[in-house]
Amino acid sequence: MITLPRWFRRPSILMNETPGGPWGSGGDDDKSGPRNPWAVPPGGRKTGQRPTALDEFLKRARGSYGGGGNGGGPQLPAGINARNLWLIGVGLIVAAWVLFTSIHQIGPQQRGVVTYFGRYSGILEPGIRLTLPAPIVDVEKVDVEQVRNDDFPREGGENVLTGDRNIIDLAYTVRWRVENPRDFVFEIKDPEETVRATAESAMRAVVATTTLNDAIGAGRTQIEARVTRAMQQVLDDYQAGVRVQGVSIKQASAPASLVDDFNAVTAAQQEAVANLNNARSYSQQIIAHAQGEAAAFDKVYEQYKLAPEVTRRRMYYETMEAVLAKTDKVIVETPGVSPWLPLDKMRKLPDVQAGQPAPQQQAQGAQK
Amino acid sequence: MNVLRNPVTIGFAALGVAIVAAATFAIVPETKQAVILRFENPVTTINQWQPGQVIGRTGAGVIMRIPFIDKIVWVDKRVLDADLDNTLVLSTDQLRLNVDAFARFRIVDPLKAVTSTGSTSATEERVADQLRPLLGNALRNELGKVPFSSLLTPERGKVMDAIQDSLQRNAKQYGVQIVDVRIKHADLPEGSPLESALQSMRTARQQEANTIRAQGQKQAQIVRAEADATAARVYADAFSKDADFYNFYRAMQSYRHTFGADGGPSPEGATTILMSRDNAYLKEFEGRGK
């Protein structure tokens, strides 16, 4: 219904202008019906409308032969001049019309979809292109190179169900462009909205088959690729003439109210790693210690084997020497004689022994 | 001659011609189908959609009709959209879902579309209005036959096909072909269903955290035990070469440690040793002479 009114409205204006002048009967702007311009005082028109260039031109032309103000009926003023002026005026309008509607400037990123009496006839490539004028040929320019970005949702994030019945907060962008301007113009009503609806349904269908951990973690790239494929397939089914360049997930996270719980999982993971690290360091220590001790024993044993008796004696005496040198000694001469014990000094001993660190003994026990 | 020269007469004549021409000729664009009504009685359709038709070789173009008698009703030829928002659906397992769906359709029989809706303007919208409740019914029926979980699996496609078939059966009377039916959103309704889903997610996270922690502890314990075992083996390998000497050697070490003679921190408190005359250390004390 776009071309039709234009097609019949325009000639009717042209026809009216011939007899009545631009402000004559049937004109688009004149609501008051047919009115004779010659009967109206020259200034009268100006209240409602701006005088156009043509108005000025005609006014001047009329002034040149003076007797226009005779009023009364629709009477053509004498002289061939007036007729010519009308013809020139109409000719100019037609020429401008043809000029404007048959020259098309198609930008480098655009294509022009040409219809000939409503029927599709071809595509105009970029450049200045000539066609037949408007009612016959109509050109619709479509931007094909520009990649369009659609954000989903338009702001924030939306809740999407995953395959394991979890909810994630999702935000993503779809990039697409027009691949086939003919299909884009003729096959789908409101193609932009169709792309949006397709994207939403494809994204949810794909997320509905992935797990929560994939969706918020490693599976993103895969989801993006699958959504791109699914969208393309659906749009091809519609013959939308659209090429989906890509889908990128801007945000895929746990719902805001669950962030603490998700963080707790991360904390637990770190705790587990820390635990394991501690165990490993203990392991290194204890093994190194064992190896050291074993090596020391081996060295001593090597020498001991060469002269067992002497070495054993030597070690015994050296040890006793070292030990006894630091302690108080009481030697009991004969069996049956009880020595006097300095009990006041010894009284401390049990306390001290009780206070001695137990783990040390245990550790030594373990070493054996 | 004078009459013909009169511009007003010419103007009115031209206007008349233009009006008749406009009423006779019409341009049918590629995007529209036209139903011609003659005294409200449909006579023909122009540029009707046909499968496999190539754009540019359709019925679009200039048509003629009988002026003032034939009336043109325009019907869109493109793929159209019927949206359905916030339909509450109950699955077989009694889970409520809030579903937004859309159907893409094409009016393939414009005459039927016009007669069935009884409208001569905005037929597409009337048809979409008729389709919406049908789509809602199809959704409720088909989704009511499957458990909720099948919406979250690849089976979803099958459910969609079933909905499309069911809708297609009902939509035929409007001269409509259903191109596609899709679910845009399938969300848990606000309130308790959403809350309980979030609650189950929360407990699942807690469970995961606890499991990870326990697993970490288990592994740490295993690592420690393995280290202890390795150490024991290293000791055993070395010391079992001569158990007797080890006993002696270790005893010496232990004495030194216990009595503070190994250079380490000296044990607290004084030690008094009572020695028998028979002590091996004192064997030489009395001299060889005895």
UniProtKB/TrEMBL annotation, chain A:
UniProt entry keywords in alphabetical sequence: Hydrolase, Membrane, Protease, Transmembrane, Transmembrane helix
Membrane-protein topology: Single-pass membrane protein
A GO MF label: peptidase activity
Domain of life: Bacteria
A GO CC annotation given for this chain: plasma membrane
Annotated transmembrane regions: 85-103
InterPro entries in UniProt: Band-7_stomatin-like, Band_7, Band_7/SPFH_dom_sf, HflK
Family: Belongs to the band 7/mec-2 family. HflK subfamily.
Protein name: Protease modulator HflK
TrEMBL record, chain B:
A molecular function GO annotation: peptidase activity
UniProt-listed Pfam families: Band_7
Domain of life where this protein originates: Bacteria
Every Band domain range: 23-200
Entry GO CC: membrane
Function according to Swiss-Prot or TrEMBL: HflC and HflK could regulate a protease.
Biological process, per Gene Ontology: proteolysis
Intracellular or extracellular location(s): Membrane
Protein name (Swiss-Prot/TrEMBL): Protein HflC
UniProtKB keywords: Hydrolase, Membrane, Protease, Transmembrane, Transmembrane helix
Family annotation (InterPro entries): Band_7 (IPR001107), Band_7/SPFH_dom_sf (IPR036013), HflC (IPR010200)
Entry-linked SMART domains: PHB
